[in-house]
Amino acid sequence: MQQPLRQAQDRPFKVLGIQQIAIGGPDKTRLHKLWVDLLGLEVTGSFRSERENVDEDICVMGAGAFKVEVDLMQPLDPGKKPAVHTTPLNHVGLWIDDLPKAVQWLTALGVRFAPGGIRKGAAGFDICFLHPKSNDEFPVGGEGVLIELVQAPAEVVAAFDKLAAGLA
């Protein structure tokens, strides 16, 4: 049996829960029909970025600290990268209690991050992405899944701490 790289108690951060899922398609109006019109998610914002080749609607389900964002995305230019529409489940976002510590620790363990570093994401939180593929320099990747790490705001960290302590 393979030994873990480090024990959990050595990890200087916690993954708190799902922050978001991002769903891509060639035309977000079809996604909007299902997720907003039929399933009832609320559109809370939009984001458009030439650099990230994306036009997205930011939707939510749930409430408070346990609210989950669902991003409905289409490319600005279907011929350019990143191709946000080629994988229907584009990425999963995870709440992280200390994003800079997580990035530092994971990088030291050989995790490959996508270019761009820590930056403001569409919803205003600091984010970065684990690359879906490893390489020779960084032997650990997302195994085909793009994973967004999202800095949890203080109220989300507190709510998850309360839940973990059995006080929620």
Could you explain the architecture of this structure?
The structure is a single chain. This protein is α+β, with helices and mostly antiparallel strands. The chain is 19% helix and 32% strand. The chain has three helices and eight strands, in the order βαββββαβββα. It has helices at 28-38, 99-108, 154-164, and strands spanning 15-24, 42-49, 54-61, 68-74, 89-96, 119-120, 126-130, 146-151. It has an eight-stranded mixed sheet with strand order 2-3-4-1-5-8-7-6.
Task: List the topology elements.
Layout (H helix, E strand, L loop, with lengths): L14 E10 L3 H11 L3 E8 L4 E8 L6 E7 L14 E8 L2 H10 L10 E2 L5 E5 L15 E6 L2 H11 L4
Compose a concise summary of this entry:
It contains three helices and eight strands. It has helices spanning 28-38, 99-108, 154-164; strands spanning 15-24, 42-49, 54-61, 68-74, 89-96, 119-120, 126-130, 146-151. It has an eight-stranded mixed β-sheet.
**Which ranges are low-confidence, i.e. pLDDT below 50, for 5 or more consecutive residues?**
none
Q: Which structural class is indicated by helix and strand composition? A: alpha+beta
* Helix and strand pattern: EHEEEEHEEEH
| Gross geometry | globular
Termini Cα gap: 37 Å
What assembly state would you assign to the polypeptide chains in this entry?
single chain
Tell me the number of helical segments per DSSP (H or I, 4 or more residues long). Answer: 3
